[in-house]
């Protein structure tokens, strides 16, 4: 089977008008996402109606429920909202977000956010020709409460919010439970240091613990640049998928993006482990329109060389 993963998406700035036609909002990348059996991205924005911009935040992102329609139309099966922008318009908007997410199913399943921690950590389960692929999400970004209120957004047993893994105990326990009921386990994390091309020690430590707990694929975003991908023990890790649909290409590094597609061999039996047997990028660059467009020729060769370099500094195998 093929599992495709891509980075951060929102609909700010030049991208806002694209939600007037959700069916074509992410058209340049849709073919690469639709080609997979399961496609997963990070939706880096609050969604719905109501609420007010969160006080103290420099950037607050907002989109209507059409954002979910746009993802589904582009071939996305699972969207993570475990990130530091999901509640940019406060908890007052959260009921609207959850209703919109429920209405988007079954075409799109939203993970990493919920009415309780149990719901926020619950995996999306997709049956691919009899093989169950489970995707769960959490935010492990280092959040300074004096500068960013998102640490306060954590879902608890009594409070709605996002799945957080600054203390990874609950995430690791959920991965262990999920591994017993699914054939392939994917974990999507919001983590790392913004602007850093090589993963932090915290990322590398958590990735190792997740693979040991039963995660077959560990991917993430938040650094706004592509970080290394490759094999880690029995699992496959892509530390940073970069921006994907973003209001500005920014620098050459932040404009670099793509869709990572992993060919996965399911386990022969439930007690076995799935294995990534091949990986490939649909290499792209974010343009002035905020959308990813495929690169070719010399730029493709540069992407390949950069990927090898990033894999080395991430301590991953080919």
TrEMBL record:
It comes from Nocardioides furvisabuli. Belongs to the CapA family. This is Capsule synthesis protein CapA domain-containing protein. Residues 2-248 form the Capsule synthesis protein CapA domain.
